[in-house]
Design brief:
Blueprint: H1 9-12, E1 22-25, E2 36-39, E3 53-57, H2 66-78, E4 83-87, H3 97-105, E5 110-113, H4 119-152, H5 158-169, E6 172-177, E7 183-185, H6 190-203, E8 211-218, E9 221-229, H7 237-276, H8 282-291, E10 301-310, H9 315-332, E11 335-342, E12 345-352, H10 359-371, H11 374-379, E13 382-388, H12 398-414, H13 429-436, H14 442-460, H15 464-473, H16 478-485, H17 489-503, H18 510-529, H19 534-537
Protein name: Transcriptional regulator CdaR
InterPro entries: CdaR-like_regulators, PucR_C-HTH_dom, PucR_C-HTH_sf, PucR_dom
Pfam families: HTH_30, PucR
């Protein structure tokens, strides 16, 4: 470790006035650090110490009772004093054996002066060394901060900052962005990494002087963590100050990166949103693709919209994974992917990179693959609706695909029964119903055709509507209809007679039949979207 000189009890024994001092007990504790010197002549020092003080005493307070002397030494040890220096002769002639035993047990140095020494000169001498040390630390810390701040102007990655603190302290640097893996500077073997990580996690719950931590906060939330580990020498105060300054610099750098990334993302979002709205010419689109290193083999494209409906309050935990999942699957199926994220909705602009023949199949395969992943089926906290717009052959018509994708999504959300249609081109009459419903009261129109059947079912539970749908789907085949409904022919004949009485004998004639089939679709459309609208038909 690149360490500032730290004054120890052993160093002090080499100073003037300690030539004839004798270490009576606690020789194994001579490397204790000394941060200050106190002259004390009281037995209770509980509220007088901060730790690492070297105590000078004539023994005046200790001569009264041996128990008080022992108690005082125990308090010094408990409050992490550096050692006890006692002047012999004036008030004490010897040190009680119990005191010596306690000092040896806790490796607490007890030093005796065989003759009178000037305590004032001792304190002046040692304090001058300590003050000079502090001045040197402050000076070095200021130089470190200034150099680091200058480097922040040119540093490109946070790894450069980690290298800088390592070069200054020569300790193991451990860094982790939130929810990511630990990074080590310098790089060490994986087994060593695992061992240090284990110790680090323990040190967070149980004090360990060989580790130090500094969380890095952005916008009031912990965004990263910086830690240092010294294997042989305990972490010093200077190390902690350097760690704190470095953490501040990392926060500034990460915040700058976030700002740049967010600005870039906002500019990209604005451009892509303009593409979806039809604001860009073919030349501008081609220029954008070239700037991003994208070469398209065709001009075929389609827009796919995925909307998420959170089932729990943890959508944000899944969004990143979902985005990567969609992108990966679409790319594997031969598409260049542009993603626009807005609230709980992703919009994907897919540029075709393969033959046009199986374009729709590849889109469908991709959607099915996504919906069948284990994450979606078992672990996802959201319900997902996916809708594809119309296929386009010119990249400046992306807005048309986008508008139809949104229309597909809107219809799909209403059509909650039966098979899901992902593609705009597969909606057929439902597209017409959706557009007509904006201008015509289709519920009222449907009631003209279906109200008698619906009212009969509501009153008698006659299952006439189900029978009517199936009969029309089977093109009037009584055998096929009875098989699909799992009823005998006589029951079917009875139901068809009721339908004929309610709708008229001509309900299977071409024009009326087409109208009834259309109204059944209208019924499905509105009943799936809002069951309460059945009342308007009934």
């Amino acid at each position: 470790m690149k360490e500032h000189f730290q004054l120890t009890v052993s160093d002090i024994l080499k100073r003037k006035h300690f030539e004839h001092a004798v270490v009576l007990a606690g020789e194994d504790g001579l490397q204790r650090i000394v941060k200050w010197v106190h002259v004390m002549e009281v037995t209770s020092i509980r509220n007088l110490l901060n730790g690492h003080e070297l105590i000078l005493s004539t023994g005046l307070a200790s001569k009264v009772k041996e128990e008080l002397f022992v108690s005082m030494v125990k308090e010094l040890i408990e409050h992490n004093a550096a050692g006890l220096c006692i002047e012999m002769g004036t008030y004490l002639s010897d040190i009680p054996p119990e005191v010596i035993d306690v000092a040896k047990e806790h490796q607490f140095p007890i030093i005796v002066f065989q003759k009178e020494v000037p305590f004032v000169e001792i304190t002046q001498d040692i304090h001058s060394i300590i003050i000079n040390q502090q001045y040197l630390k402050i000076s070095d810390l200021e130089n470190y901060s200034q150099t680091l701040n200058k480097r922040l102007l040119t540093i490109e990655t946070y790894e450069d900052i980690l290298q800088f603190i390592f070069s200054s302290l020569d300790v193991q640097i451990i860094f982790r962005l939130k929810n990511q893996d630990f990074e080590f500077v310098p790089q060490i073997h994986q087994n060593e990494q695992l061992a240090i990580i284990s110790q680090l996690l323990e040190a967070k719950n149980q004090q360990n002087h060989h580790f130090a931590f500094s969380p890095i906060f952005l916008f009031g939330q912990e965004y990263a963590e910086l830690a240092i580990f010294s294997k042989d020498i305990p972490i010093s105060e200077f190390d902690l100050l350097i760690l704190d300054r470095t953490a501040t610099a990392l926060a500034q750098h990460l915040l700058r990166d976030m700002y740049v990334e967010e600005k870039k993302r906002a500019e990209e979002f604005e451009w892509l949103h303009g593409w979806l709205e039809g604001d860009h010419s073919p030349d501008i689109i081609q220029e954008y693709l070239m700037e991003n290193g994208i070469k398209t083999k065709t001009k075929d494209a389609i827009v796919v919209v995925a909307k998420f409906f959170p089932l729990k309050d943890k959508l944000s935990q899944d969004v990143t994974y979902l985005k990567l999942l969609f992108r990966s699957v679409f790319e594997q199926n031969g598409f260049t992917v542009f993603t626009i994220e807005k609230r709980n909705e992703f919009t994907f602009i897919l540029l075709n990179n393969r033959t046009k023949k199986n374009l729709k199949d590849r889109i469908k395969n991709a959607i099915v693959s996504i919906m069948e992943t284990e994450f979606i089926r078992k672990k996802s906290s959201v319900k997902i609706c996916i809708a594809a717009g119309k296929f386009i052959e010119n990249l400046n018509e992306v807005h048309k695909s986008y508008q139809t994708a949104k229309e597909t999504l809107r219809i799909q959300q209403k059509m909650t029964k039966g098979e899901i249609n992902y593609f705009y081109e597969d909606l057929h009459l439902f597209r017409l119903i959706s557009q007509m419903s904006d201008h015509i009261n289709l519920q009222e129109l449907a009631s003209e055709y279906l109200q008698p059947v619906l009212q009969y079912d509501q009153k008698y539970n006659g299952k006439l509507l189900e029978t009517l749908k199936t009969y029309l789907e089977c093109n009037g085949s009584k055998q096929e209809t009875s098989n699909k409904l799992y009823i005998v022919r006589q029951t079917l004949y009875h139901r068809l007679q009721k339908i004929e009485n309610l709708l008229g004998e001509d309900f299977m004639k071409h024009e009326k039949r087409v109208a009834i089939e259309f109204m059944l679709l209208v019924f499905d459309y509105f009943s799936a979207a809002d069951p309460q609208k059945l009342n308007q038909i009934l």
